[in-house]
Amino acid sequence: MMIKKIPKINNVFSYSFFIWDDINPEHGSNPNDPIDNFSKNNIVFAENGNGKSRLVDILKSVNGQAIVLEKNWDCLLSESQKVKIVTDTVAEIDFSDSKWSSDDLKNKFLIFDEYFIEGFVHSVGPYQIDTPQRRQERGKNIVYLGNFAKYNEEIDRINAIKNSILEENNQFLENEKAKIQGLLEGFGITLDKLLNQKDEVQNVKKEDLNSKKEKVKNQELEIIRVEKAIKEKNKISDLNILLEINVSFSMEIVQEKRESIILDPNELFSFTVCRGVQQTLRKIADKKDFIKQGLSLIDEDTEDCPFCEQKIKNGHYIQIIKDYQDIFDETFTKEEQSVKLLLVKYKKILENLRELHPPFENQTHLAKAKQFLSLDEELPQLNLTEEEIKIVKDEINLVLSKEKNILEKVEGSKVNDIKKIITKVNKSIKDYDKVVQEINGKIEQLQKDSIEGRLDTKKHEILDRIKEFKKEIFYIENKEQFINYFQTLEQYTKNEETIKSLERIYQLLKDKIIEEFNEFVSEYFDLIRSLVKELSPSMEILDIIGQASYDRRNPRDPAQCGFRIEYNGKDCSTSLSKGEKQVIALAFFFAQLKKEKDKDKIVVLDDPITSFDAGKRKSTAEVIQRETKDFQQLFVLTCDPLFREYCLKQINNRKFYYIFKTLGSSSIHHMPNNKENICSSFEADFRDIDNALGTNENVIIYGQKLRFCLETKIKEKYFGYSEDSLASMIEKVTKKGIDEFKKLFINKEAILQIYSYCNTGGLAHYPRDGSTSWNELKDKIKQYLAFQL
Amino acid sequence: MSLLDLIKEKLRNEDKEVFSIINFNKSNDEIIVDIIEAGIVKFDSFDKKHDD
Lengths: 789, 52
What we know:
The structure holds two protein chains of two kinds. By secondary structure, chain A is of the alpha/beta class. Among the domains of chain A are: about 250-455, no CATH class; about 680-789. Helix content of chain A is about 55%, strand content about 10%. Chain A is built from 27 helices and 16 strands. Chain A has a six-stranded mixed sheet, with helices on both faces. In chain A, strands 2-1-4-5-6 form a five-stranded antiparallel sheet. In chain A, helix 4 crosses helix 5 and helix 24 (about 695-720) runs antiparallel to helix 26 (about 740-760). The two termini of chain A are about 45 Å apart. Chain B has one domain (about 5-50). In chain B, about 60% of the residues lie in helices and about 0% in strands. The longest helix of chain B is centred in the N-terminal third of the chain and has 12 residues, at about 5-15. Chain B is flat and about 35 Å long. Classes of the chains: A alpha/beta, B mainly alpha. Chains A and B meet through helix 5 and helix 18 of A and helix 1, helix 2, helix 3 and helix 4 of B.
């Protein structure tokens, strides 16, 4: 994008009413490409105070920089501000109501001016006073990438945030610690121990509190017993162990030859003659099945043998019956005897049940042992209930009744209940014996401990247990607070991770800055150095000392970041002259142009050579031509005639403009090629003065032109002011010849009088009231022409 | 984008949890509040929490 022209600047700085087309009427034949429009390259010349840097401010403003476009002092306050800029791609960009109508030109300019020097090149200089602010901003660099104070501020902020969180986190932990510290001290436990027993604390249960307290109570009683045992050692050996019952009731009867049968009382009680006979026959019948069947058919009236179906009169049957009868008598008797015997055994079982009781002496032994032992065990009850006793007694009576009349059937047996009672009693006996064994074990252990002198150790073990139980009670009662503290610790650790993260960010910020500086050094510094050498060959000892670093001892110290540049062995940041600063700044600016990828930009240089000698002016113009040729457009603004001449010579494809004030308003004048020698151009106007109107404006314009011609022509033509070397200057002066210089000597007084008239007379104050006579000025101009300088 | 912004952007990618929440346009106290509200750091009083 290129700027074609600036059609209007009203009420901005010294531009009170500038209209491009009024000032530059040379529009040429093509209205779309007037000859006075800005070109690819533009050289703008102006003397101080005419509005050159203000034009740069307007460009900075449209570039998006924070520039306030002040109103012209002579304009009415109510008068609005207007700026119009025409580009080759956008019809018009307007400034009105303190804002630009479009952002099309935003960030389109690369501007070098005195602010660039101050912004990027820092050197206190021999007579300037350094300040902490300046030190903060520049770090220890001569050329830097930005405001170090800004870097420091953000880096410090990360550090401050980190420290705040760190402090808050420590306080958070201290507060929570304080809450439990008193508790722990009261119990005599350290914080470390609590932390070591974290799992234990977490696992204790509130519902166990009462049982733990009970245990403490029991253990305290145990202590009393152990102490008694220690004191009355002789009584320990006298303690008796308890007796076991060690019996078991059973319906199983062991017979001769160790054969056993299961007692069946129902069978016993139902024993009769018939049952006895049947029992007997059954026993013999199983020898021959047919006999069994036959026998069942025999009775007193039987006539036919059931076995052979013959009449029994033949006598065989009688004999058979006799044989069976023998067998029957003997077997039946044996059966009867067996029933009687089993009844006795059954009765014995029942009587034992009825009489069952634990050994009486056990209670006495136990009571004695309890003086020295804490015995939780109780001896189980063995006695039958009244109901059970009744059942047993009734059953005994049935047995007695049966024994009296063995062949009579007895009914009403509760053998099933008896069996249940036996089962219950057997279990009770087993339980009883088990308890007795446990108690005996303790008694024996006590006796053993007493004999072997272990009671003191036991006492301490109990004391330790009490302590342990009390600790558990302490944990249960304060569990919530301890859990809170554990959670606090976990959170504290998590917070520490964030603090570490912030510390890492803090370090990274510094590291990244160093990284960027190193990148800058590798990319830019050689370029800057070669450009410095080109601009100012005498400034060749410019070097980087040491590695880039970032280090600040405390927040008020400047950042020791970036790289240090020495010039002629001295630290640049304290000793550079104004010109040297400007050379480095300009070299940095050109280096940036080289690195700039977006060439669709407009380069603006506002008096880049103010502190330069003639040699640097020439080299600067050459470098400008070379380094800006790829960019879209160039504006070089200067108040220096010599530099202007160099630019006009060095820069191709350029147009020339001259800014001076007319009627109090700065104006941009296009100077066509044939009028680039401004003095010649102005003198041409002077020669045509009789055709000019004697307006107030022309009084000002012609007066300015007269002063400019006098000063510039004498300086440049007579003294070679615009020459770049002494040789050229002397050559030019010599060429002028002594006769020409005579004009100066002869007209000296008159020249100075006219010059004084232009500077201190009414012309210098831009009168609007016509007090300066047009005719008077015309006389002065004609007088000037007559000098033929 | 300034160089510092560029550096911050790189860091933002490296430490998403903490750095991404830091807004340099805010004051330090506001940034700390943001960090706390995001739950990245906590200074809860657990007792108080239980009481609530």
